[in-house]
Amino acid sequence: MARPDAPPTLYDLAREAGVSLATASRVVNGSTRKVAEPYRVRVLEAADRIGYRANLSAQAVARGTSRLAALLVSDIVDPFFAAVTAGVSRAAEAEGLLVTMSVTDRRSDRELELLRTIGGFRPRLVLLIGSRRTTEPSSELEDELRELRRAGADVVVVGHHRLPFASVRADDTTGARELAEAVAAAGRSRVAILAGPADLSTATARAEGFRAGLRAAGLDPVAVVHGEFGRSGGRAAALEAVGAGADALLAVNDVMALGALSALRERGIRVPEQVAVTGFDDIAAAADAVPALSSVRIDLEALGERAVAVALAGDDSAAEVVPAHPVLRASTGH
Amino acid sequence: MARPDAPPTLYDLAREAGVSLATASRVVNGSTRKVAEPYRVRVLEAADRIGYRANLSAQAVARGTSRLAALLVSDIVDPFFAAVTAGVSRAAEAEGLLVTMSVTDRRSDRELELLRTIGGFRPRLVLLIGSRRTTEPSSELEDELRELRRAGADVVVVGHHRLPFASVRADDTTGARELAEAVAAAGRSRVAILAGPADLSTATARAEGFRAGLRAAGLDPVAVVHGEFGRSGGRAAALEAVGAGADALLAVNDVMALGALSALRERGIRVPEQVAVTGFDDIAAAADAVPALSSVRIDLEALGERAVAVALAGDDSAAEVVPAHPVLRASTGH
DNA sequence: CTGTTAGCGCATTCAT
DNA sequence: ATGAATGCGCTAACAG
Q: Fewer Cβ neighbours under 10 Å: the N or C end of chain A?
């Protein structure tokens, strides 16, 4: 029944406590507390007596800024993004920020649309997680972000990108290079790269790192196969790579590597005896795979936490990099 | 430089378009459009000329209600919650709602605290995902939810619970029963239940279902071992269960089952030859496990979508149930 | 159908 | 240190 029973307002609080609006405001919002103790307690007591809860939207209007951290993520079901999101969530809440999360589905149009509506809330932070296609025109996106920036939001992009904003990413190149070198050192000479989408910047950065590592070992990839970023993409790519005679498959992420493993298993191809397989990100499932998947470890949650820290710092030219190093397991015969 | 460059307001828009505030408002906010075409276009053109974007907080204040859907989730890294969240996100956005996501870490105090701050935004929807401990006093939580309800929010709880609010959950009992029966029919007679936390209502509902299924097959569980909900909990429980002589392990969720698989593998115990293992939820990783994990399939994203639909319906006594049925795979010898 | 005006809940300057 | 008054950006009667 009694639904639209309006919550008590600051006015109600003031009246209940027998003080002025201003005084009530000063004690419940914090600011530079300059309220005498007796008044303080009266207000505080009155507050929980009537169950007062500040209307954050009204605060945002009056203050001209909100306590929202807007998070845009490609796909929350992907363990990679889920982990980063967890980090963002923790760090944001520690800063007293409420995080809004929207999934872009990797579609630029949705990304843009979401950014627009979110902008309406005048968020304090805007975090873009998930690498951008390198081929798509990002000018619209860039404009929108710039707009948000002007409106007072600090924006940071997680992952590789070419946007003029602060960024946080893993040291993909180093991790990839080291992993490729380790695989070469393990005696594989015909290694293929499961490169994922050709226009995904993170994927290409990792593929480049693989190449560099192989080169350092005096090798050239026997194949570089592109495809979907997901598990089915990994399956298809794996099949194509072994068809090309590969004895090692370096995937640009764990999910693809897992797909590769399952495809190889179905084909009766033994890992690591016949073909070695590696992933990237070291998601939880990597260690549990059979055989356990060699990968490149990245502290995903830390990545998320750093993202909000960097955003809060407010330096557009910041470009933080978190470490990424190989974790060698059974899938490479280690 | 020009950072705190205040975004254009409705007032600016009106001036730019040469119309009144009210007219400008009418065209940009939609409502029952009663604006003559010529005016409409003038406002619209002016809008994107100056890059006008409505201040949603201000709208919320003026309207007395927001377009926010507040989502509280136990652990976003858990594939189960991630999938449900994805469904919620999609459905909410389809309704023009922005979703805020907070992770409770399964701690009641955080849950309560988050609910309080979120309440400050006067959200339109509040979704609680993740089953509640049955032992903890939920009165505070209940009060808080009731408060939100009074303030105009529609609240729905996903999963089993004992709260007087709308709910959406999977038909765990049926799914569990059917799975247990299938395992029994496959010739297992000494089945153990990896029951998870004794005070997690979803876990107990599933365990009860297992019991019922075994009973129907004339069996009694040889062991019911409680423990953590996660993968390590599954490992420990599995070891204890096989110690008790079990030839089948029914876990209350996939993550635990996956942990069980890995523990058994390390011990050299063969699945399904020596011991059958089953999970619950049928997360993506279940089908990829080795051996492929038998589980109970639930359309997790649909669960999330239904949650917002039910919430929007606004009926506190709604109690929707989505289907759950076994998916038999190699881990049970199917 | 359009414009005026009075709030919405709160922060904050300005007097006191 | 406190209170009265003004404004934040927007919506919703209310008149015209």
A: N
- Nearest partner of B134 among B166, B159, B113, judged by Cα: B159
In chain B, which residues have their Cβ closer than 8 Å to the Cβ of A64?
6
For chain B, domains (ranges, CATH) are: 10-54 (1.10.260.40), 65-170+301-324 (3.40.50.2300), 172-298+326-332 (3.40.50.2300)
- Asked if B288 is an interface residue toward chain A (Cβ–Cβ < 8 A), one would say yes
Whether residue A49 lies within 8 A of chain B, CB to CB, comes out as no
CA distance B116 to chain A (A): 8
Q: What is the pTM of this model?
A: 0.93
Residue in B51, B61, B114 nearest the CB of A58: B61
* Residue-by-residue DSSP string for B216-268: HTT---SEEEE--SSHHHHHHHHHHHHHTT-SEEEESSHHHHHHHHHHHHHHT
8 Å CB contact between A162 and A134: yes
Q: What is the pLDDT of residues B212-261, one digit of tens each?
A: 999 999 999 999 999 988 889 999 999 999 999 999 999 999 999 999 99
User: Measured between beta carbons, which residues in chain A are less than 8 angstroms from residue B68?
Assistant: 100
Question: Which residue's structure tokens are 């110690």?
Answer: B243
Chain B closest-CA separation from residue A218 CA (Å) = 35
